[in-house]
Amino acid sequence: MLEELKKRVYEANMLLPKYGLVTFTWGNVSEIDRESGCFAIKPSGVEYELLKPEDMVIVDLNGKVVEGNYKPSSDTATHIELYRAFPTIGGVVHTHSSWATSWAQAGREIPCYGTTHADYLYGAIPCVRNLTEEELKDYERNTGILIAEEFMKNDYKAMPAVLCKNHGPFTWGKDGFEAVHNAVVLEEVAKMAARCELINSQVTPAPQELLDKHYYRKHGANAYYGQ
Amino acid sequence: MLEELKKRVYEANMLLPKYGLVTFTWGNVSEIDRESGCFAIKPSGVEYELLKPEDMVIVDLNGKVVEGNYKPSSDTATHIELYRAFPTIGGVVHTHSSWATSWAQAGREIPCYGTTHADYLYGAIPCVRNLTEEELKDYERNTGILIAEEFMKNDYKAMPAVLCKNHGPFTWGKDGFEAVHNAVVLEEVAKMAARCELINSQVTPAPQELLDKHYYRKHGANAYYGQ
Amino acid sequence: MLEELKKRVYEANMLLPKYGLVTFTWGNVSEIDRESGCFAIKPSGVEYELLKPEDMVIVDLNGKVVEGNYKPSSDTATHIELYRAFPTIGGVVHTHSSWATSWAQAGREIPCYGTTHADYLYGAIPCVRNLTEEELKDYERNTGILIAEEFMKNDYKAMPAVLCKNHGPFTWGKDGFEAVHNAVVLEEVAKMAARCELINSQVTPAPQELLDKHYYRKHGANAYYGQ
Amino acid sequence: MLEELKKRVYEANMLLPKYGLVTFTWGNVSEIDRESGCFAIKPSGVEYELLKPEDMVIVDLNGKVVEGNYKPSSDTATHIELYRAFPTIGGVVHTHSSWATSWAQAGREIPCYGTTHADYLYGAIPCVRNLTEEELKDYERNTGILIAEEFMKNDYKAMPAVLCKNHGPFTWGKDGFEAVHNAVVLEEVAKMAARCELINSQVTPAPQELLDKHYYRKHGANAYYGQ
């Protein structure tokens, strides 16, 4: 069964270069098997061009490597905290994709300026604060805890994305592929929001009723988009 | 005959990813057969990589699905209103192309800054207002009605493009291919207009006589561009 | 001999899509055979994907089509004026390349901000004024005459590029390939100049002595760049 | 042995077009063999599409061509000064990559706005002043000397990149491939820093403790990134 998981996670990882979300090794995807409590994740610092399905590393929710010839991604502890805090998610993605990272570096949440954003992400995409010097001692784990805290006042199912100040984005979804899908949406939305502000420096977020209309076209009991 | 229409609409849809106008399934093309009063349109939410000619859905101008294994695009009702209001058009395109959508999000019409714009689009490209909460109840249909209203004071033949505030663009043409062509032009014009304003924040639209010269090089009785 | 010219001009035209300088048919290259006084140019409005060497049109300096199955580019009269005014050039290019056209739409000359610019183009790249309504009656020809006038106070050999306000760029060179090369340089220089001003709104042109150093590394008796 | 060096330098040079860092011949990579005191470098002005391993030129640290059918890169004297001043480096890269060159033209150092930057480059990326008219007489050599002077107050191992005002970037590394790697990082970081300032004109550099955390995840005795 975990061979299948490794293959899926390999394929989800390979979508990151396909969609132009990574330079070199600056990104990683994981997917969890909730029954066994184990997840597969990209090995740390291995080039995408050389990656193979069998290189994926199996880790449990205590951070123990269960199987694999490589060290797991250095961001593994962040993935673990997200799997713990968000019980219904099955996949997590981290990238340094260019536009989302530019917003993270700017330290701003991304306002919802239109329906492309509203179709997938309900409201402004939050940007969490820097870690304190004390928190930096356990950097990757505390990054995950900080994100989890943010989502005590936000709905992780309706907002499957976050920016970490001066760092970059994390996204999630029901599995690794949906988490990648959300990473692509985030990058496109981040790009259009920045350009939108250039075109109209006085722009305000889209009306709430339009955002609701679009979000609920695709989500919930009355969704009617797709097959 | 409608097999031929499906094939054409499939091919026109496949031009959207070719020209970089869509991410995932965020766009659709339709083309109408005016004799039968039916049009073919992309199915809702089906990935471009998996799309086949036989997947196109045939719909009549009352919105009834005449033939097809899938639900038609969720924007079908907008296409219908445009076919009803604009009697000489044969094709309609909707995308979330990046630059045109950024202008739509900014809520601004695109001024005509040069001949690239004037060659195809006569005057500023309009941006229609948000729908009211009441209008949102029949969202896609009222989007089409709002566009049609805008073109009571504008010539849909000379201006085959519109932006919907906080949403994105629609374009049209004598058939599906020309509608796609206009979607490509719109995106390029939107990009250059935004950059032009960055380079010169005091820029004003191009002189009317230059715009007339270029528009009528390509359109009307005295056109002399092309073969 | 003119078969060879057609082939060269075909190949030079095909470099425009290769270098991303054209959308659809928005560009054209010509090259002249000074002995016969004839030049080959792209036919008007024919798609690059369908173009063949034998489609090139041979025109003389009076604008008479000497050979060809198609009408020549609608910009032919501009090419003629440039060949007449600039006796040592052998090729001319017109495009609507995105960044150069954005500067043309902004109505600004492109200041020389660095050595990439100085390596090929000596000084600021001029932007000529709009034609008057009277001049627009013979639009393409008067565009060429206006450019030629500009270069009575500028050296066409040291500055093989010009912007036409609210329109786009023309470049030239010793043959069609060099004219295309200069069109690529212009687009790259236009892009970097715009971004440079975004990064530093107070930026001033590069020092004259640095520009001289770079220009004369590549041009004139003491050039030492290349083989 | 030097055949192997030529092959490596050829391959490192070919990465520049692969990563989109060069237009035409606007870039060069060298790598040194410290034992023999010779380095291989790209020939001057030869197109990347035509380049072969045997075209690389072998030069010693006095600038004498030891082997090769071509003249070495016109920037050879700069490479020599860097190899002399920075004893532990093995490779040098020069490009006119678009974003890094835009910062160089703007005459600004690139502030460290995030972890993508901090992972590879410790602190702000310096921008050295213009050469004086006197210094321009020995342009390429004095460019190298000026860079070396800058790094008397900066650590060339922790900051393997520099911008030359109104010109462009140089990067270096333990070999030619690492120098290219750093050139790619620099371009990405330059792009995101410019966009970050557009998104937030009041942005300040990332906190020092976060930068230290990221830099030392990848460098030094306690590094834990990668295998």
TrEMBL record, chains A, B, C, D:
Its EC number is 5.1.3.4. This is L-ribulose-5-phosphate 4-epimerase. PANTHER family: FUCULOSE PHOSPHATE ALDOLASE, L-RIBULOSE-5-PHOSPHATE 4-EPIMERASE SGBE. Its cofactor is Zn(2+). Involved in the degradation of L-arabinose. Catalyzes the interconversion of L-ribulose 5-phosphate (LRu5P) and D-xylulose 5-phosphate (D-Xu5P) via a retroaldol/aldol mechanism (carbon-carbon bond cleavage analogous to a class II aldolase reaction). GO terms for biological process: arabinose catabolic process. Signal peptide: none annotated. It comes from the Bacteria. Pathway: Carbohydrate degradation; L-arabinose degradation via L-ribulose; D-xylulose 5-phosphate from L-arabinose (bacterial route): step 3/3. Residues 7-194 form the Class II aldolase/adducin N-terminal domain. It comes from Anaeromicropila herbilytica. It catalyses: L-ribulose 5-phosphate = D-xylulose 5-phosphate. Gene3D superfamilies: Class II aldolase/adducin N-terminal domain (3.40.225.10). Pfam families: Aldolase_II. The gene is araD_1. SUPFAM superfamilies: AraD/HMP-PK domain-like. GO terms for molecular function: aldehyde-lyase activity; L-ribulose-phosphate 4-epimerase activity; metal ion binding. NCBIfam families: PRK08193.1, PRK12348.1. Keywords: Arabinose catabolism, Carbohydrate metabolism, Isomerase, Metal-binding, Zinc.
